[in-house]
Amino acid sequence: MISVRNVLVGLAFAFTGYLAARGLWWTATVPQPWVVIVSLGLYLATTWLCLLWEPPKDAVPDAAYPQAVGTRGPAQLPSIAAALALACAFLVPSAISVAVGHDSRTMSFATWYLGGIGALMTIVMVRRRTWVAWIGTAALAVASMVWMGPLNALGLGLVGSVVWVASAQLLLRSMDRAARDTARLAQLQRAASAWQASQVGRQRERRVQVQQALVVAGPVLARTVSTGGRLNAADRLEARLAEGRLRDEMRGPRLLDDDVRAELERARRRGANVTVLDEGGLEGLDEDSLSIIRAQLADTLRSAASDRLYIRTSPHDTIAVTVVGRSAAGAGWSDEDAVDLWREIAHPQTD
């Protein structure tokens, strides 16, 4: 498959192969040709290994060369390949200079390593081995200046190699910065989408609550308006029941079904003061479990005769709902004698 990465790798293969081929185009006698051939083989093997060797997907980057979070692009070069590249940068320039002899050290077939090692260190830099690349470039600069002189080394390609390595580092940093910005932007977009979804859910919930309030309180409000606020005893009772139903829907909707609503209204019609509070503990329960809890709550309310009923959910691991009933004891209230109903509804057992 043709991709940008494959095209770049192909160009790197062709370019490094061309630089190595220059080392075989001898225009003068080479005293030690086998050293040149071995050096060329080492260079090509190391360079192509650095181009092709990919670490395992689950490999952890070396502690000395951590890969930045949110980066994209080439993976970090394995340590063995980095060590081979560094050894190549130290050995090849000196080996070639010794093999071609003193008189040929500035000829094109002897100076190919200036571009060759520079290209290798550029690859190492792109593969996220910054210090290895710069150490190898420094070794190339020292060896070339020693063997052919500073001016010759700078004029025959050393400057270009340093520029390649520096440009690769700047380009890699720009890519990583762009990748981090993109990852941060994607995270912000996800957070914004989640916030928007939660707001839409809350708006929908508020609309449902408003509609329920209109259904419950609408007739009472209409009756109040039509009579000018002059309500009889039956109308006042209906208003009190409507207020209780609205409070139940707002404070404990997960506890309610038709049976529970009916029992709550029956308790209020006989004069009981009922408080329903959902204080957490029912999150994550499926509808079947909630139905079991509601059925037990309806049974408890059906047999209750207390003057005051307190129905609260419980954050306890085993208790889902607590129902407390209190009634007047004689002429006043007693903290102990007034409690005439205590029921704890446990969480349904799940397989």
List the helices and strands and how they pair.
Elements: H1 4-22, H2 33-52, H3 79-100, H4 112-126, H5 130-148, H6 150-227, H7 233-251, H8 258-269, E1 273-277, H9 287-302, E2 308-313, E3 319-326, E4 339-346
Parallel strand pairs: 1-2
Antiparallel strand pairs: 2-3, 3-4
Q: What does this 3D model show about the protein?
A:
The chain has 351 residues and is α+β, with helices and mostly antiparallel strands. It is 63% helix and 8% strand. The protein contains nine helices and four strands, in the order H-H-H-H-H-H-H-H-E-H-E-E-E. The chain has helices spanning 4-22, 33-52, 79-100, 112-126, 130-148, 150-227, 233-251, 258-269, 287-302, and strands at 273-277, 308-313, 319-326, 339-346. 26% of the residues are buried.
